[in-house]
Amino acid sequence: MPVPVSLRSVAIGYGSTAVVKDFDLEIAAGEFLVLLGPSGCGKSTLLNAIAGLSDLSDGEIWIGERNVTWADPKDRGIGMVFQSYALYPNMNVEKNLSFGLQVAGMAKDQIARRVKRTAAILQLEPYLQRRPAALSGGQRQRVAIGRALVRDVDIFLFDEPLSNLDAKLRTELRVEIKKLHQELGSTMIYVTHDQVEAMTLADRIAIMRDGMIQQLASPREIYHRPANLFVAGFIGSPAMNLISGALVPKAGKTFFRSELGTVELPQAAAQAAEEHAVIAGLRPEQIVLDTASGLPGFAAKVSVIEAMGPDTILWCEAESGVFSVRMPGDFAGAVGDSVTLGLDLATASYFDSATGKRL
């Protein structure tokens, strides 16, 4: 049965350096939660603390109804998959899967059933008699996942398990992990700095910075309604285009004023009781090469074209800066083209210039 995980006022530090600060997080039973953030933000440290591999400076960790703050890793009911495969090179796949159960004293027939079930789920049956050296990177990582899965644990912890794989294998293993969660319904906590992994795998994403959560929400919410400028810049490839300006109230209406001009905003976009310095954020798909749409526009020149297959990213230089624009994959323009960029400010995100928080 899946169980919830609760982190209550957790703090982790080394000497005078605080890595995680007064951290609270509730993870629902059966949820797939991703801890996402840049290197050094504390996400792996936090995962190690849940696993019992790092001690807390303060706070509590609860797994289900148990306070496991000071429990040994073996007593927490967790299975952990590391970035490195950590397989026994002298053992075949079957023995790698069964070794931990043998050490725990489990009966042979029960071990055999669990290994067979795990091998079937991860499509490892053809490789059970092979040693790790005879496996591909993706197969080795599946064995590493299998060693956690075979234990029949309450919670699975993943610490950047795909970072050592090439792009094709990462995509394949992402799909396998997603299918695994759908089949088992287990609680899974996954650490990564790769936003594509986070967006495709998670039920919810906790975006971290300097040991604190910046936003905790669904992938869709985070992409379309980032909580602050850090999230806006971190999520999305390319990141949001940012335009400095001000919200200006006049005659019951709100206008966005910037060096690009002044534009009336729909009520749903933003409202202001008094003039307020803001930064408008637009995703590349919220900028168009279409002045006929009636959107406010400005002149720019195409400086770089990135053909991505299904879509094309244009990098356009204007007097006010460089803007990224997402176009269809069959876009036929050329570097050096003069274009007019239209801004869909009605759907933009607006952030307070002083605090960086979403308005």
What does this structure look like?
The protein is α+β, with helices and mostly antiparallel strands and 359 residues long. It folds into 2 domains: 5-234, P-loop containing nucleotide triphosphate hydrolases (Rossmann fold, 3-Layer(aba) Sandwich); 241-352, Beta Barrel (OB fold (Dihydrolipoamide Acetyltransferase, E2P)), CATH 2.40.50.140. The chain has helices at 43-51, 93-103, 108-121, 137-149, 167-184, 195-201, 219-224, 229-234; strands spanning 5-14, 17-27, 32-36, 58-63, 66-67, 78-81, 155-159, 187-192, 204-209, 212-217, 241-250, 253-258, 261-265, 276-282, 287-288, 297-307, 311-318, 321-328, 338-343, 349-352. Helix 4 packs parallel to helix 5. The longest helix is centred in the middle third of the chain and has 18 residues, at 167-184. The chain is elongated, with a radius of gyration of 25 Å. It starts with a strand and ends in a 7-residue tail after the last strand. The mean pLDDT is 89.
